[in-house]
Amino acid sequence: MRTYYRTSIILFIILLTYNSYLKGNDQAIELGLTKVNFSSNLDGWTTVTESEQIRYGEWRNNNPINQVGWGGGWGNWGPTVVWENYKTVTSNEFERTSFNGEYGLVIQSIDPFVPSNATQYTPKQLGSYIVSPRIDLSRSGNDHLFFQYKRDRELKLEVWLSKNNESYLGIWEENPSRYINHINVSSLGNGFSQVRIDLQNLLIEMGKILINNDLEDSVISPENDELYIVFVAYDNANRRIGSLPNTIDIKSIWTPSYYGVDHNNEANIEPEIRLEPRTERVTVLGKIGETYELQKSLDLERWEVSHSFTLKTRSETYPLSYFQEDSKRTQFFRLKHKP
Asked: Does the pLDDT at position 242 exceed 90?
């Protein structure tokens, strides 16, 4: 009976973990997300490393506290360098790996090199980065990011976003204090945790914060067709010899569609205009290279051309004030092909 009871508990835990895994994948599929495929390569993701020069060695302090030297004066006290060395350290790259047949990513800690007799060293953290291909947010109004991860204590993991692959904004770290209403973390019971990030509403909240701090140029529209997701792993560059190796494992990454994928029906794209009242922005969507007219009306009967656009990307975003009149009267907008 006891053996049966113990077996039942183990089976229940396995089923619970498996069902949690399936539930996460099912949710991602329902949201129209695409699973990153690391089965044969990095699926367009790009790794970036950092390097730092680390100084380390043995310093001895010859200055007894509050002790006066010969003749009543202060002696020439202070730290003495017994020996020192320098080493240029480079963070490791994210690599493909397999978790019981499911492909994902692993990052290894930096090889230790500081000997035990070193009393001082330069404290530095090095980042390892893996950057997604260009992601298109303009094709859905409910974009999310899902991933599962497991990490050892000495390494840290963060997620950043960028709209131009040049400047980056952090959106997630463990025990986050920001954007918590748009982030859900659940334990899968096998050492992994699943993170679900509501990109759509997180970007809206982030946009309001940036605008309130006069950083409007940094706003990432939730309708933008150019977004880059970055996983960042931080490690201590000054690892002592004998330190245990550490890793971060990441798998089951689900993202919105890559830009340009499944655009076979590009010729049939109908123009669309989306208003974002909470961030006071307007996004114009249509076919790249096509010219559209933004028309406005006060009564839905008489329309006049406000602006004309030739789209260079799938979507372009503007401040709402760019189209509004000084008066506070209600206005209606529509987007049409330019005749």
From this structure: no
Q: Note whether 107 and 196 are same-domain residues.
A: yes
Which CATH number do you get for residue 329? 2.60.40
Residues 274, 223 contacting (CB under 8 angstroms): yes
SS3 at position 217: helix
Judge whether 230 and 163 are in contact, CB under 8 Å: no
Asked whether residue 267 carries a pLDDT value surpassing 70, the answer given is no
Q: Are 155 and 173 in contact (CB under 8 A)?
A: no
Domain count, the chain: 2
Q: What is the pTM assigned to this prediction?
A: 0.70
For residues 248-268, give the mean pLDDT: 79
Q: How far is the C-alpha of 233 from the C-alpha of 108, rounded, in Å? A: 10
Domain that holds residue 288: 266-337
Torsion sign over Cα 171, 175, 179, 180 = positive
Task: Answer yes or no: is 119 within a domain.
Answer: yes
